[in-house]
Amino acid sequence: MSKALNQIELGTACIIKETGRPGTLQRIFYYPTKYLVQTEDGEFQYYSTHEISFEGYDRPRTSLSIPDIPYEGIGASFARWVPFESESQVEHHFLSSKEIVWDMITSLELYNIWFDGIQRAIADVDSDRYVHKFSFDQLDLKPGSFFKIRPATLAPWFRCRIITVEKEKEFGFDFQMMPFVTEYVSFKLEESKNGVFVICNRYSKGLFSFLALLNWNKSKSKILQKLAEITPTIDLKEDDITDGDARGAAEPQLNRDQTVAFVVNKSLDGDNDPLNALPDKVTRGIAKALLVRIKRGSAERPPMPDLSAAPATATTAPAQLTQEQTISLVVNKSLDGDNDPLNAIEDKVTRGKAKALLVKIKRGTAERPAMPEISSAPPSNSFADSAELTPEQIFAIAVNKAVEGDMEAVNSIDDKVTRGKAKALLVKIKRGTAEVPPMPDLSESNNDIETGNEPETEEQLMERLIAEGLKGNMEEINSLDNKVLRGKIKAAIVKAKRNK
């Protein structure tokens, strides 16, 4: 029963928490609430609400419930100034991945769009060539590199130095927009269940440090909100590569420049559906950035592309190509924003290889393949009816599927050793200490490869894992389902270390 503790009837029995002695409520006093209690020995004492408990009355524990995602993504912010020192912090939640947010924060050429006070930012390189001087491709994103900014006022160029670069975690640099005032600006990324929290800290020290807080409430405290407007948002529950339900009607038939022009014109006319339906995150981000520039007046509206002259998509071309050519074709199409050819591949192995290559390209561990010559392409080989897979092929396919989010392939492996190896490799891949294995080529007959691929015996497994354990590699050992075998291996490792 829940009732206000200042409305309890007089004469109600109670227990004094400190001593455990029973008593009876005699009188209630307010502001703050106090109770006059008569104990069983006739004494009268005053107690507060947390010093006694009443029989038949529950006092539920109160707690503050804070949502994981702040309202409209806007988190906490503060600014303070003490003599000769200023500090400020802004926090914002992005409904995007850590990779996308990191790319947006480290794209210094976009700072004039969202970072308050910057008119232009360029790489600081010693070169007379225009293309080198004004291109961020020449900037090494590492501590000690320099870039230059020009404030929105009539101030000269200021030189800024990159101080901290911890990929997808922290990016910090010295910053200056006026004489005699230097700040340190850092962006920290913290991954959450539904996106990424970005925390911007700014610190300045010196006689004129108070100038760093000018326009704080009006604009400087809203820089991350401006960045969120141009940052592509993704549904983290869906696959990052296949987005079959979100496709524009005309977008698959256009290249990236034409797609950006098309969706920007549609958005300016009041139709945001083509922009939000773009599956390619880079194209969507470029389009949003261009929209912001157009609305600010710093860019002009692009002409509407001629859809009649746009090349038709080759949805039937993959059936006339070899496996390698098919993968090259659909990967290039997907990188240009057209996922139809990839999703139209009926062969699961080829489609898996293409998706794995896309993941590697987006991570920067592989290069974009060359576009195949379709006219001279021979008919593709039939590899749908392949023979039984070897343990190595099962292992590679299961790991690739698990990386894409499908753990059923790993969990359905009958051989415990192979399943343990797959789980151990997945742990290493997530930690960044190993790479995803290539998908096996099933176009060749597996009967010619089956010899010599028999599973390890228990003695061979123990011998190999003991050697790995002595080197410090314990992931595969810890992933073994057989507890007895795992205990034997660990005991042998301890014994071997003692004998050294």
Write up this protein.
This protein has five domains: about 1-65, SH3 type barrels (Roll); about 70-230, Alpha-D-Glucose-1,6-Bisphosphate, Chain A, domain 4 (2-Layer Sandwich); about 250-310, no CATH class; about 315-385, no CATH class; about 390-500, no CATH class. Mean pLDDT is about 75; it is low at about 235-250, about 310-320, about 375-385 and about 445-455. An eight-stranded antiparallel β-sheet has the order 6-7-13-12-11-10-9-8. It has a five-stranded antiparallel β-sheet with strand order 4-3-2-1-5, with no helix packed on it. It is of the alpha+beta class and about 500 residues long. The chain is extended. The chain is built from 16 helices and 13 strands.
Which fold name corresponds to the CATH topology of the largest domain?
Alpha-D-Glucose-1,6-Bisphosphate, Chain A, domain 4
Tally the beta strands: 13
Q: What is the overall pLDDT average?
A: 76
Helix content: 25-40%
CATH superfamily of the largest domain: START domain
Q: What fraction of residues sit in β-strands?
A: 15-25%
Major β-sheet strand ordering: 6-7-13-12-11-10-9-8
* Uncertain residue ranges: 237-252, 310-319, 376-387, 444-453
Helix and strand succession? EEEEEEEHHEHEEEEEHHHHHHHHHHHHH
Number of helices: 16
Q: What is the top-level CATH class of the largest domain?
A: Alpha Beta
User: What gap, in angstroms, lies between the N and C termini?
Assistant: 68 Å
Q: How many structural domains?
A: 5
**Shape designation:** extended
Largest sheet: 8 strands, antiparallel
CATH architecture field of the largest domain: 2-Layer Sandwich
Q: Over all CA atoms, what is the radius of gyration?
A: 32 Å
Structural class: alpha+beta
